[in-house]
Amino acid sequence: MATAAAYDRTATEEHSGSEIDIGIEGMTCASCAGRVEKAIAAVPGVVDVSVNPATEKAHVAFADAAPNTPAVAQAIRKAGYAPATAEFDLRVEGMTCASCAGRVERALIRVPGVVEATVNLATERAHVVGHGVVLGDLLAAVERAGYRASPVGEDPTAMPAPDDAQARSRGELARALVAAGLSLPLVLGMVADLLGFGMMVPGWAQFALATPVQFWLGARFYRAAYNAVRAGTGNMDLLVALGTTAAWGLSTYGLLTAPPGMGPHLYYEASAVIIAFVLLGKWLETRAKRQTAAAIRALTGLRPDTARIRRSGAEVEVPLAQVRVGDIVVIRPGERVPVDGRIVEGAGSVDESMLTGEPLPVEKGVDENVTGGTINVDGLLVVETTAVGAETALARIVRLVEGAQASKAPIQRMVDKVSALFVPAVLLVALATFGAWWAFTGDVEAAIIAAVSVLVIACPCALGLATPTAVMVGTGAAARHGILIKDADTLERAHAVTAVAFDKTGTLTEGRPGVTDIVPARNRVEAEVLRIAATLQQGSEHPLAHAVRLRAAADGVVPGALAEFRALAGRGVSGVVEGRSHLLGTRRLMAENGLTDAALEARADALEAAGKTVSWLSETAPEKRVLGLVAFGDAVKKSARAAVRSLQAQGIEAVLVTGDGPGAARTVAGELGIDRIFAEVLPGDKADVVATLKRDGKVVAMVGDGINDAPALAAADVGIAMATGTDVAMHTAGVTLMRGDPALVGAAIDISRRTYAKIRQGLFWAFAYNVIGIPLAASGYLSPVLAGAAMALSSVSVVANALTLRGWHPRAGSEKTA
Predict the structure, then answer these.
(1) Cis bond leading into 622, ω under 30°?
(2) Which of 156, 187, 189, 720 yields a CA-CA distance of 20 to 30 A from 661?
(3) Is the C-alpha dihedral spanning 263, 269, 270, 275 positive or negative?
(4) Which of 137, 155, 327, 503 is labelled catalytic?
(5) Is 503 one of the catalytic residues?
């Protein structure tokens, strides 16, 4: 997916140098262009430069055939401007192991102007960032490396063209079965002969059975090996091709040179069975890798194909691609919402579980937003479209999950370095094995067979698959439960978190005022105080008024009739209820009217010390008396206590960060079971709290939801944002929680720990398998047939182990980690 088509690179015919056109952002006048031109001209190797402020491009000519684009980009930055950055996502076909992925990555990074290239073997995707790069150069580089590449579409939720992945899978299975069928007589004959039944298949029959397996069904290994050698490197296919060809060639040589009447030693069953095992293993591996992408397929399958729009008073069903922003869409009960939009007519329940992981439907009404892919459970909804295609929330979620799955964890970079040396090292070991056996035994056949075993058992595939498959399954499982993880780097950092700092408001609390206490005066009852307060607040739109009305409705208290309502700016309200004049407001309002109550004064002081807002209710006529207090606070979320317990069960310290005074902070912390508090923290100082925790040796996750949380989210090792908050917070964070449930914080850390455990297990198995298997093969303890079977199963076992993460559920595992 080319997110910025900013550049063109052209080959010149006039000289042996090169030229690029690079986009520049921030130029406003001719003097800007002159400054940029002067800066670029100073770059070594540049022979000519012209900057066009109208097109916002610089045309640069170099003396060398390879343009030094990074240096030009740096010069533009130093001049005070920004070189436009191009990003591309490519689908790469033909990769079979970690060495292949490494080769494609190196080919892309060598393209002039590319500053970053990551290739993911499990997703078969490449992500490229560069300056002065065009898509054609990248595709050509991949082609030269021996693979095929194509750009990924712009809209990740667009319905794909008929997917031939299943057809390819069926083809792979068919080839594996044919290879197994042709190999079976060879294996049965060998087993019967070993058991003394003398039923060995004749030599020429063995040749006839093994040759199609070697050169027809095994042709893919020769093609891939040729491309690897042509690119100056090696891969798994080269090892398989060399090993099986050696076994087949040795057998054919023996068959052709054997004296009449003498039965030569033939190894056709080894070459044929190895290829059959590898083909079967590749089919199983491909099938397992498709299952790792189940989360993405589930998300992309949520969007319907059509939408029912209202045009000229009539309802017309059109393809979704034809819907535009502003169109009025009609959604009937039971249908999926096709677009992001705002309800303009109707009301009903909407199932948002695909977006938030919350199983209960959410009531929606006029002026509330709905998200494409959710389900209208009941009621007829008429929606004005606000976003379509790649701009919808569903598309953004898919891009985020795809980006996380395609990203490369830091531990994988170490694995890549090992993989780059793996095939050459195996070739050297095989050569040394052949030489040692020949030197010490004088038996060329035994030497060849031992070398074949070494070539066949060595498997770089498991090394390449261990990390990306675990990342794919882990991020996919998290996304299904409303946890969006930005990239593999975040996933790897999150597993080591030892402290979680919560911004109180909106994260551990509801973020809106609610009635927490109703304190009646002597000889009064709570219900009476609430009824009068709710009646007075009928005429107000203040947040505290809304809180009183909600509490009355929840308690089943019906307000009375209100007359002569007045809003008293900054102090409260007044009105007549059932013929009596009342005031509801601040302590100052009471003092202005000569109203006081000593007992309630002490209670009000205690409530205010706990960080609550207190409103006084009084009657002014016909009697003058205080009736009670109504206290407001930001209620703690129901799941907050369980969220803190979950973190503590994982050995993680919970920290409260709030702007409240120490008393109010201690009250909330005591309710939640949090021991460490940072009170009276100004919005701009939250990042300093993160720094303090880091100095204490903690690996810190910061949880927030507001714009003022963004610096702290960026300063933390892992930033976690609530999707109920601002876009700024979500863009800064590495993890986004799609619903405002603090229990998801522990779940996010839990899935990261489980995923990292699977990565470690996969890498341990991959390394141990090769470290143990190669010496056994070199020593002659493993026949080529067993070596081939082990190699085929090694990759499958690594992928299958990662797939166990698919069953992860937040409530199933937040108390302990794997």
Answers:
(1) yes
(2) 720
(3) positive
(4) 503
(5) yes
